[in-house]
Amino acid sequence: MNNNLMNVGVLFSELDIKERTKIIAQQINKDYGTNETLVVLIVLHGALIFGADLVRNLEMPTEIETIRIKSYEGTASTGKINLVTPLPTSLAGKHVLIVEDIVDTGRSIHFLLNELAKSEAISLKVCSLLDKPEAHEFPVKADYVGFTISKNFVIGYGLDLNGKYRNLPYIANLTKA
Q: What region holds the Phosphoribosyltransferase domain (predicted)?
């Protein structure tokens, strides 16, 4: 990373994330039990790493699906949701857990929940690694949240800036230098 372009401050270490992911998985295991199949719908690309780590800690049978939406350019939301891949068609009669990297304005989750409401799933819940309540513009609330953060732009552990920095093992606050 070119330090002339930006400064980062670690918000959550790799260990913090690993421990919190296990706690979230324990709650999901408790809520769903070990008999029901859970469809884990991972929102690409940001939630890929978190989703993979979360699924490894789940005890029930799981099906993994992915969806790709786009709403950001650089550090700002475009205000529009673009569905890059189609929604899975096999969700009827199943429990679905949407795994998101961050609930920022809430626009993406609001959009997905409205679209998935047509799927005839038994249940729809949201698990988000990060939540920015002060940035919410839509009345959405994740059922499971890793960490609550302020209205800053963050990178790492799947979160990016123009496709870069997803590979950082921690979550960092991004400030322009």
A: 22-160
What residue numbers bound the domain in which 92 lies? Answer: 6-176
Neighbours of 89 (CB within 10 A): 8
Catalytic residue among 104, 131, 143, 160: 104
CATH number of the domain at 83, please.
Answer: 3.40.50.2020
In a domain, residue 129? The reply is yes
Structural domain includes residue 1: no
**7-26 pLDDT, tens digit each:** 678 999 999 999 999 999 99
CA 140/CA 92 separation, integer angstroms: 22
**pTM to 2 decimal places:** 0.90
Mark whether 160 is an active-site residue: no
